[in-house]
């Protein structure tokens, strides 16, 4: 087998990125995503592209947030691994998969090839996530009316709420942050992400029971691809009452009132209560996201 050549692309040769088949439908999934040519890399063998990766970040980010497009040609898992392993930026890898991927042998094989390449490169599976997309055709429940919602300009209130919510969480990213730096780190990472989203800070809401106690928070947001459920969380002492449903309905309705024609969302596959809540509100599953993280950075 001939030697591998790995190249970072530029505006003049960005077309090389399109030289591979797209069995996972990444091009359609990323039709709203803007990639920088110099954050794209390809692996070539005999002049043919056999692996590709696109590192992505927001328009103002100086460094990429993650890799969210990664492909390998059939039998070229090692090339894909070297593409990841040799990258100057070691960040989380997202592999987005269409719904029903386990039932389609072509999609299943393509996904497994990418998983293999990631593992060979030293990446470890962090979590499998369900992707949702609400549209008006799904309908939307009425507001239950059990909670009152308030604006709150003080970030400390949200930081404390996030600390409390993450003290008993099923979220894999939060659990990783807690393991690495405790509850403060998990809360701060969440807060930093919410500030990073290009949507008004004034949208953030605290939720309260009739006696004024804090029940949770909800954050309607926009990410660079459009309106999304930024965060839903119920504090531990008020769980078991179905308040996540109330928060999700309120969050979705807020975005619709702001003109949203769709709302995206995601939750960990293992977060069964939140997955059930999305189903109850009318968010269909449209795909999956498999998150890998580098073991060395």
Automatic annotation (TrEMBL):
This is GNAT family N-acetyltransferase. Residues 163-297 form the N-acetyltransferase domain. Transmembrane segments: none annotated. Gene3D superfamilies: 3.40.630.30. InterPro entries: Acyl_CoA_acyltransferase, GNAT_dom.
């Amino acid at each position: 087998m001939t030697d591998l050549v790995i190249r970072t692309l530029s505006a003049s040769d960005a077309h090389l990125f399109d030289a591979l088949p797209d069995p996972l439908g990444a091009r359609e999934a990323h039709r709203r995503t803007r990639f920088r040519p110099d954050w794209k890399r390809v692996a070539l063998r005999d002049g043919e592209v056999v692996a590709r990766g696109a590192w992505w970040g927001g328009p103002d980010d100086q460094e990429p947030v993650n890799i969210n497009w990664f492909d390998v040609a059939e039998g070229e898992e090692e090339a894909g691994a070297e593409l990841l392993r040799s990258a100057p930026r070691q960040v989380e890898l997202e592999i987005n998969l269409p719904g029903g991927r386990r039932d389609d042998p072509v999609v299943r094989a393509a996904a497994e090839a990418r998983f293999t390449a990631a593992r060979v490169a030293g990446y470890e599976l962090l979590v499998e996530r369900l992707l949702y997309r609400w549209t008006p055709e799904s309908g939307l429940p009425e507001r239950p009316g059990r909670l009152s919602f308030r604006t709150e300009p003080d970030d400390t209130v949200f930081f404390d709420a996030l600390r409390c919510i993450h003290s008993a969480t099923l979220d894999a990213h939060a659990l990783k942050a807690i393991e690495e730096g405790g509850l403060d780190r998990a809360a701060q990472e969440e807060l930093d992400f919410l500030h990073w989203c290009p949507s008004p800070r004034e949208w953030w809401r605290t939720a309260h029971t009739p006696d004024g106690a804090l029940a949770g928070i909800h954050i309607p947001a926009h990410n660079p691809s459009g309106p999304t459920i930024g965060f839903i969380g119920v504090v531990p002492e008020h769980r078991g009452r179905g308040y996540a449903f109330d928060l999700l309905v309120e969050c979705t309705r807020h975005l619709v009132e702001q003109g949203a024609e769709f709302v995206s969302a995601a939750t960990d596959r293992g977060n069964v209560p939140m997955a059930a809540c999305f189903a109850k509100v009318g968010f269909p599953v449209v795909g999956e996201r498999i998150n890998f993280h580098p073991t060395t950075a």
